[in-house]
Amino acid sequence: MARRAAAGLLRRHLGPLAAGETLQARGMYPKQYGAANHAFSRFYSIQGQQRSLYGFRTNVETDDTQQSARMNFEVQKRSFSSAAAHVQRNPAYSVLNSDDVSYFKSILGESGVVQDQDRVAVANMDWMGKYKGSSQLLLLPKSTAEVSKILSYCNSRRLAVVPQGGNTGLVGGSVPVYDEVNGILTCEAGCVLENLSSYVENKGFIMPLDLGAKGSCHIGGNISTNAGGLRFIRYGSLHGSVLGLEVVLADGTVLDMLTTLRKDNTGYDLKHLFIGSEGSLGIVTKIAILTPAKLPSTNVAFLSCNDYISCQKLLLAARRSLGEILSAFEFMDRHCINLAMKYLEGVHNPLPVSPYNFYVLIETTGSDESYDKAKLEAFLLRSMEDGLVADGVIAQDISQASNFWRIREGISEASVKVGAVYKYDLSIPVEKLYDIVEEMRSRVGDMGQVLGYGHLGDGNLHLNILSTKYSDKMLAQIEPFVYEWTSKQRGSISAEHGLGLMKAEKIHYSKSSEAVQLMASIKKLLDPNSILNPYKVLPQSVLFQKPRVTVIFKAIQDKII
Amino acid sequence: MARRAAAGLLRRHLGPLAAGETLQARGMYPKQYGAANHAFSRFYSIQGQQRSLYGFRTNVETDDTQQSARMNFEVQKRSFSSAAAHVQRNPAYSVLNSDDVSYFKSILGESGVVQDQDRVAVANMDWMGKYKGSSQLLLLPKSTAEVSKILSYCNSRRLAVVPQGGNTGLVGGSVPVYDEVNGILTCEAGCVLENLSSYVENKGFIMPLDLGAKGSCHIGGNISTNAGGLRFIRYGSLHGSVLGLEVVLADGTVLDMLTTLRKDNTGYDLKHLFIGSEGSLGIVTKIAILTPAKLPSTNVAFLSCNDYISCQKLLLAARRSLGEILSAFEFMDRHCINLAMKYLEGVHNPLPVSPYNFYVLIETTGSDESYDKAKLEAFLLRSMEDGLVADGVIAQDISQASNFWRIREGISEASVKVGAVYKYDLSIPVEKLYDIVEEMRSRVGDMGQVLGYGHLGDGNLHLNILSTKYSDKMLAQIEPFVYEWTSKQRGSISAEHGLGLMKAEKIHYSKSSEAVQLMASIKKLLDPNSILNPYKVLPQSVLFQKPRVTVIFKAIQDKII
C-alpha cells in the first residue's frame, strides 16, 4: 500500500473519543460480557446468594452418603479441554459427624452453618458446571477469629476444607480503609472487586487489576488465584501490587503480614507464597494493595495485520512509541473475528471485509486526551507506512470503543455457541506464540476449528478448539500434544487460570521436578495434614509419597541433640 | 503569595531540558556520587578486583586460627547506627581442613581457590569497614555446576558459606540474552548492573532498577537483597520485574525457575522466596527480568515547601496530575540542604536563600519532551497557586539537572564529613514519616543534628543523626527508640537495606512472631544445616531452638504409616 493511500485510509477512520467517559464505558464490557473469558480462574466463586463478611465459604468435605469421591468428582461434561483427573478419596481424611456440626454451630451460630442440601449443592458446583464437589457442609465465618477457630478444629480432626469466595455480596460492616496520600487500600478478603474499584475511583485512583468477573469475584479470591486480567500489561502482576496480607494457616495460626509499606526488606517476603497458591497454603482474610492514579483519557484502536510477524513488530513498536500510555495490546486471528461476527448480536467489523489474517486492539490510557490521541494517530500512521498495519480505525466515541472491546471479549462467548470448546490458557514467548495455533490447525484438520487470540502484550495465548460435539478422538489429537509443545518452548500451561483440579497432575509440563518437590515440601510445612483445598494444585503423588528416610533420621537426630 | 506573583516567580526559573541527553546525564550521578546512600544494602559486593564468571564468592568460614568468631565479627567502628550483635561461633559448623581445600581445587582448579591472606582479607571486609568476617578461603566458581558441587560438599561437611558478589568484572563469556519483542533480559548473576543497563539501553530499553552502586554491584546481589533504588516509584519492586531465577540450594540442588514468561500460574511462585533473602536460602545464579521501554524525555524540578503537610499534599497532587510520567519524588529538610551547601563542592542552592523548611525534587520521564515539560510547568504553577509550593525551578539544562540531583544524592556524602553518623533506613506511612525526625531532634537536643530525607514517593525515610564523635550516650538516646517507634507505626526498620548481621536480631520490630517462626521453618527446610550466610537475616534463637516434640512425633508417625 502506497504511503499516501495508507495514511488516507487510516485518517478516514480516525475520530476523537470523549475524555473521561471512556474509562467508565470500558468498565462495562467485562461486567456485561467478558465473564466467560476472564472468570475461568475463579472456579470457586460463582454460584449462590449467600452473604458473609469474609466472603468465602468453608466446605467441609464429608463421606456421609458413602458415595465415592470418584463419583462426586467426576466430570459432568467433557467440555473445556481435558477431563479432570478422577480423584480417589483419601482415607486419611476424617468423616464429618454430628459433633463436628455442633462445634461449628457453637462458633458461628445456626445461621453460619448451612446443611440445606440445595444451598450446599450450589456451592459444590463450579460456574461452568464442569466440576462437582462432595462437600456436605457449608460454613460462613464472619471474622478472622472464626476462620482461625474453624481451621484449628478441622486440622486437629483432619477434616478437609475447600476455601471458597466470590458469590457473596459486600456487607455494610466491611468498609475498606483507604490511604489517599500513599494510594493504598486495605480491606477484607470478602470485598467484591467491582465495589473496591468504585470505592477507589471516587478518590481518583483505580484498582491495579480488572477482569470480566469483577462484579462477583472477591479480592481474596483474586489474590489466591493471582488473577491477571485486562490491566496486567500496564500495572503488572499482583506480586508487584499487593503490599500486605493477613492469612489464616491450616492449623488456625493467624499470620499477620498486613503492612502497608511499599518497601520492606526485613526477612523473607512470605506473602508471595499465598499469592496464586489457590487457597492450598492458607486462607487470605485481609489485603493491603497499591492503587495507581486514575487517568482520564482512554483511546482504542482496532487494526488489521497481514501476518503474525507484523503483529509482533507492531507490539515492539507500540512499546517503544506509546511507552507510558500503552494499556492494552490484544490480538485475534481472522477465525475469531468471523466467529464473533456470526454469533455476537449487535457487533460489526469496523474494518472493510477483506482477507486480513490478524486483528489487533490497542488501548492507551493517559492524563491528556488531545495529546494521547495525537500520539496514537502518529504511531498508527507510521506503522501503516512501515507496512506493519494493513488497515485501522480509532474509536470516535464510546459506542465504537465498546464495539471494539466487545469483539475481543465476546470471542469466548461466541465459541461456546458452536457446540464443544476445548480451551487452553498458555504463556508462550511472543515469537513462538502463534506456531501452536497453526500446528493445532493441521492436527485437527476438518474435525474442528482452531482459534488463537489473547493478551499478546503479556505473551498470553487463549487457544480454543471448536467442534460440534465432544469426542475422545479430538481430545487425543489435542492432548498431551498441547502440553508437550508448550513445555518444549518453556511456556506455561496455565498463564492466568491456575492449576486447580484439572491441571494439578500436569504441573510437570511447566515446572521442574526440583521445583515441584520444593512446593510439596512447603505445602507439607504449612499444611501437614493437607486439609486445605484437597486434590488441587499439586500432584497427589508428591504430596503423599512416603517421607525419605533421611528426613526422618534428621528429625530424630535433632531430638537426640 | 499572591496568585500572579507566584506564577511569575516560578516562570522566572523555568527552562527547557534537552531531550535525549538527560537520561544519560542522570545516570552519571549515582555512579559518581550516589554510592554512599544506595550501596548500603550491597554489603558483600564492594572490594577487590577478582574476576569470576558468576561474580560471587564463596567464603568458607573457618576456625583454623582458633580466633573466636566473637573477635572476628566485632564491630570495627561504632559508626552507622547500632553495633552489630556479637556473634558466638556456632560449634555445629566444621573446621576447614586441607582435604577440603584439595577437594575445592579438584573442582575449581588452583586459580579458583584463593588462600592468599591479603586477598581473603579484602573479601572479609564490608565496604564501610564496619564488619569483618572470619572466612579463610575464597572460592571463585565459574558455572552453576561448580556452585552446585561446592554447596553439596559444604552441606555434607557442614562448612558455612558466605555468598558474595559485586566486586568482579563482567567477563566476555557471560553475554546476556535479550528478547526484544518481549523486552526480557536473561543473564548470569555475575553481570554488573551498569553493564546490563548499557546493554539494554542500546536496544531501546532500560533496567527496571538503578542505584548508586550500579558500577560495581551484580544483578545477582541486587536480586538477593531486593535492591530498591531510584526507579522504584515508577517501576516498582523486583518482585514485580523478575520473571525467572536459577538458584542453587544449600544441598547443591539446582532449582530451575528460569522462565521468561510474564504470566505463569502453575503452582507456588517460589522465586519470590529468594528475592531479598540475602543469600540465606540459596545462591542466585541466573536471572530473567522484564525491562521497560526507554523514554527519551526527562525533566527535573527543585521546589521548596513551607511545611511537611505541604510536601504530602504535593505528593498526592503529583500522583494525580503527573500520573504516568512521574519518576521521582524525593524530599529533604532544610538541615540537609544546609549541610549539602556547606560540604559538597560545586553545589549551589538553586532557590534564593530563605527560611524554607522542606525541599522536594520531582522528576518526570516520558516520551515527549515538549508535552512533558508543559505538563510539569502547569502542575507546578497550580501547586504554587494552591500554596503547596513556596518556590521552585525547573532545570534548564543538564548542568542544572545534575546540580539538583547532586544535592539530593550528596547528603549522605556530606553527612560523613561532620564526624559520626547514625544512619537508619525506615519505611513509614507518609503522613507519619516526618514525626520521627522531629521526635528524634528533641531527644538528642544539642548532642547532635538530625537530618530527614528520602524517597517520599515510596514512604522511605533516611534518618541520619550527626555528631562530632560517637558516644554510647547518643546511641542510648536513639536506640531502641527508633525501632520501637517505627514498630508502633507498623513501619519497616529496613526499607531497602536488608537485615544482614546488624539487624538480624531486630526483625521482631517489623515482623510478627508467627511470621518469623515461619521464616525460620522455611530456612530449616531449605538449609537444614544453616550453612548459607550464617548469623544473618534471622535471629539465631529461632534458628537453633530445639524442634518441638509434635514435629518429631509427626515424622516418626509418618514412618510407621
Question: What report would you give on this structure?
Answer:
The structure is a homodimer. By secondary structure, chain A is α+β, with helices and mostly antiparallel strands. Chain A is about 35% helix and about 15% strand. A seven-stranded antiparallel beta sheet of chain A has the order 13-10-12-11-15-16-14, sandwiched between helices. In chain A, strands 5-6-9-7-8 form a five-stranded antiparallel beta sheet. A four-stranded antiparallel beta sheet of chain A has the order 2-3-1-4. In chain A, a hairpin with a 4-residue loop joins strand 15 (about 450-455) and strand 16 (about 460-465). In chain A, helix 1 (about 5-15) runs antiparallel to helix 14 (about 370-385). The longest helix of chain A is centred in the C-terminal third of the chain and has 19 residues, at about 400-415. The model of chain A is unreliable at about 1-85, about 165-175 and about 545-560 (pLDDT under 50). The interface between A and B is large, with 104 and 104 residues.
